[in-house]
Specification:
Strand 3, helix 2 and strand 4 form a beta-alpha-beta unit. Helix content is about 35%, strand content about 10%. The chain is of the alpha/beta class and about 300 residues long. The protein has an 8-stranded mixed sheet with strand order 1-2-4-3-5-8-6-7, sandwiched between helices. The model has no long low-confidence stretch (mean pLDDT about 95). Helix 2 packs across helix 8 and helix 6 crosses helix 8. It has a domain of about 210 residues: Zn-dependent exopeptidases (Aminopeptidase, 3-Layer(aba) Sandwich). It binds zinc ion.
Length: about 300
């Protein structure tokens, strides 16, 4: 290394390291560590509600679920953190900024508490057991409180939410949920009337692209970015535009609530990302690479749609 290059490298780190150290990225735990927030400093929220391991006997196990889903989403926590870490690396390498996405995690097994349900469905006894406190920590303390106060003190037009899940559907594709009823997908063009209730509502308001293009068009849809960069099978996308009449999750309460017009505290757009088994099972390094690949797509999506824009 030449002395000039060495000096440049040292100076770069002089700028970056104090910035990193001044950020408070310490994990914040909810009641009894049943949930946790891994704080960040950019307008991206990664949610991982279904890969908790704790099964305290003091919380009654749920035996019924509105969708019949009581089993966790194996390895989505590891993949979500790989996504977060890679996004931070990409911001640093490409933009020379320390930008760490927020990550919120449920540490309870889904049969004890499900953050991707409403308060009457999340828990066996929402008001009477610690599961209710954990549910409130996930939503009120962490997303609405901590992430919300970050959004309130920064003037982004909107933030990006990615709610990370896993499924075992036979199609084996990544399912991207935009809160659009699947019965609309056979139509050659999605009606703009669907935009206001979709999870891209706020993005659609700022974008010059149609809802159709944002959801399954070339270049602008998350599905096409993933297809072009890594060839993963993903729906909706130009390759697989119509998941109607298949097993397909179109997005749950977390995605719906925080992207809705009814939610007034801050504006988010984004999607639920349901990963197939083929992308969730393997060595830690394989899963980390998958997370890094997905992060690369999310990073492109963030800049393509100007999520960095301020009011
Ligand atoms: Zn899930």
């Amino acid at each position: 290394m030449s002395s000039k290059l060495g000096l440049l490298t040292i100076c770069l780190w002089c700028l970056i390291v104090p910035n990193v150290l001044s950020q408070n990225f310490q994990i914040i735990y909810g009641q009894k560590s049943y949930t946790q927030l891994e704080p960040g400093n950019v307008n991206i929220l990664i949610s991982t509600p279904h890969d908790g391991q704790l099964q305290p006997a003091t919380i009654t196990t749920r035996t019924n679920d509105v969708l019949g889903n009581l089993v966790g989403d194996t390895n989505t926590g590891l993949i979500a953190r790989a996504i977060r870490d890679e996004l931070q690396r990409l911001f640093l390498v490409n933009k020379n900024v320390v930008a760490r996405p927020y990550l919120v995690a449920n540490n309870l097994v889904r049969a004890k508490m499900d953050p991707n349900r409403n308060s009457s469905e999340c828990c066996y006894n929402y008001a009477g057991e610690d599961s209710g406190l954990a549910f409130n920590d996930y939503h009120q303390t962490f997303i609405q409180g901590k992430f919300g106060s970050y959004m309130a003190s920064n003037s982004y037009k909107l933030g990006l939410i990615v709610d990370v899940h896993g499924q075992a559907h036979p199609e084996g594709w990544i399912e991207v949920g935009y809160i659009i009823d699947p019965s609309n997908f056979p139509n050659p063009v999605l009606s703009e009337k669907l935009a206001s209730r979709s999870s891209l509502n706020h993005l659609r308001q700022y974008s010059s692209q149609s809802l159709e293009t944002l959801v399954r068009g070339s270049k602008y849809s998350f599905g096409d970015i993933v297809t072009q960069k890594f060839g993963y099978k993903i729906t909706p996308s130009p390759s697989y535009p119509n998941p109607f009449n298949t097993k397909y999750y179109n997005g749950g309460p977390i995605t719906q609530m925080y992207t809705s017009d009814q939610f007034k505290s801050f504006k988010l757009a984004g999607f639920q990302m349901e990963l197939p088994q083929a992308l969730r099972f393997g060595s830690n390094s394989t899963l980390t690479t998958i997370g890094q690949n997905l992060a690369s797509c999310i990073y492109d999506y963030y800049w393509l749609h100007s999520f960095d824009a301020k009011i």
